[in-house]
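Onboarding guide, step 5: your first structure request.
Type a short instruction followed by the sequence, for example:

Predict the 3D structure of this protein.
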Amino acid sequence: MKKLFLILNIPLFLFCQNIIVVGNSNNHDLDYISSSLNINDMNHRTWDSYSNQVLVDSIIQLNNSIVLFQIESYLDSIIVGTLENKVNDNNIFLVFSNTIENDERINDFFGFIKLRNSLSESIIDLEDARVWNFNDNEMISELSWIGTSEPISVFSETNAFSMIHKKYPMGLVSLAGFNLDSIQDLPNYLQDLISSVSSIYNHIIIEDVIGYPGDTIYIPINTNFIDDIIGLSFSVQSDPEYLDFISVENEESNDNFEWEISQLPFGIVEINGATNSGVLENGFNNIGFLKAVLYPSSSNKISLRGLENIITYDSGESVQGLFINGEIEVLYNNPIIHLKAPNLIEPDSLGIMEIHLNTDHNISAIQLCINYDSSILDIENIIPTLNLPESWFFTYINNSLNNYVEMFSFGFDPIGGMSGKIFDVHFQSLNDYEQQTAVYFCDILLAGMDNENIIPLSIPTNISINFPDINIIPKKIVHNQNLDILYYTNNFQNITGFQFDISFQNNIDIIETFNGNITKNYLGNWITLNDSYARFVYFDNNQPVEFNAMGYLLNTSFVINENTEENEFYFEIENIIVTDQHYEPLKVKFNDFTLENNPTTISDINGDNFIDIIDILIIIDYITENLQLGYAQLKVSDVNNDNNINIEDILLIVSDIL
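The system replies with structure tokens like these:
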């Protein structure tokens, strides 16, 4: 088998041929755009002052191309129709205009709506907060994104969206509310832009599958490459509590690939493959199946997310591709009812255990009996959640002498097709030392409109009562519609990786994450599993060193929806894993939390309600490009409100401290 290097160590040479610049040199500096591409050794053509008919005839011939349109205020409907017909021929159409006009067809195709005209000095990349300055105070078009499109940059003064992407099955379109030739550092901007969109040419497709808890499933992995390949390396992440990856098996008609599979922490599997002979031909191929086992506790839908990939062409060139992620839909022969314990509670303290129900039945009555050790735990209260109708009757009886509690709830308004929490069980750990204890169902009765006695699958839990190795404490920064959450540790502890899931209310949206001051060089990523649920996985790719640090691990930036009147936001934490310098799991206390929706004081950059030297050090890290700041952090760091963060802001903070 041909040797493939680890994904993170292969240099990348991104595909960037067939680049075309479209515009009118009487209106825009096409020479500046062309020379900026030449600096990056990007071969290209320029279509200057083409008539609409010539332009349409030229676009019809395009395949595997990146087209940069520098236009005035609109695209002719005939041109838009031609772009619609050609986008899925591996084409990328990038349009720039600082005075774009709304038109229903162009709005739908690019996925944007123009809001207003304004002025700006720069734009900020949403992915890594890079700032690109304009040559002069630039007239701009402020945009909003719609449908399946997504924003990729904002204007620095207004935080309004400045560039929108929309992905198609085999192509991509983008519209920017500024002129391309107005960017000062255009060579670097074009290098980053074209590198970021070039991956659209190659696809690695993780197909959707269905299965029942306990099944062995085969997840199809399909590819669509523009050139013949001899090697492929990629990594996939899923939920380690519900799924175990086993191997990769070739598709019958494609048996000239050999595969190696490596299990990594946090539910990540790394897959390396190479041809024994010949090549995998370009175009669409089913390269094989990722074999996995669904655990009996599997429920609802399980996401399958591609993280990193390297594609090796027959020429030896290495490129990246774009993942199309899949999911596993877990079907139920029977309802599943399971207990969910907090990740950790301390001795002699309070905790909340949750009871979840997954069912396709219409349930009208629930009777449960839970067995627990009353010498370790004391049940203090049981509260139904909002997933049970308010009209339902509920009661419980705690028989602590016999180590069980019974609860009963019913109503004439049945619940059906649900997956979520139905009860919160409040308890206290009674002892002042560490211990483990099991909690399980001693009896379950579900009755429904379609069945008088429904037999569910029950899943018990274990409660860990420990003194934590590490505490994670969220702190917030709020400025206008921006909310940053910083996840602090209050223990000096070596950390090599962390993972957690967070669910949040539907009146806020997560837009980006930034590494914390103690994880500056960590690798990782995040994914939204649905509109109000996200997962974060970060790890140190370097050899662990002996050092102890205290600070924050991560900053998650949210935008607060307009007209939100809530005084606080509630967050639930699940699936928390933190590893030490030996990659062993630590005992972590990181529980559900609530944050108040009130503005943060200017200069309080770490959200601790104090202005001190720590805030100054964070700004210094940002100015020296050793740390990225969240959107709310940027606002409270700009003390003199001049849209720049520099030594002047530091001096003002020093003055406040003194």
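Each response can be followed by summary notes, for example: The helical segments are 30-39, 52-60, 77-86, 104-110, 186-198, 613-623, 631-637, 647-657.
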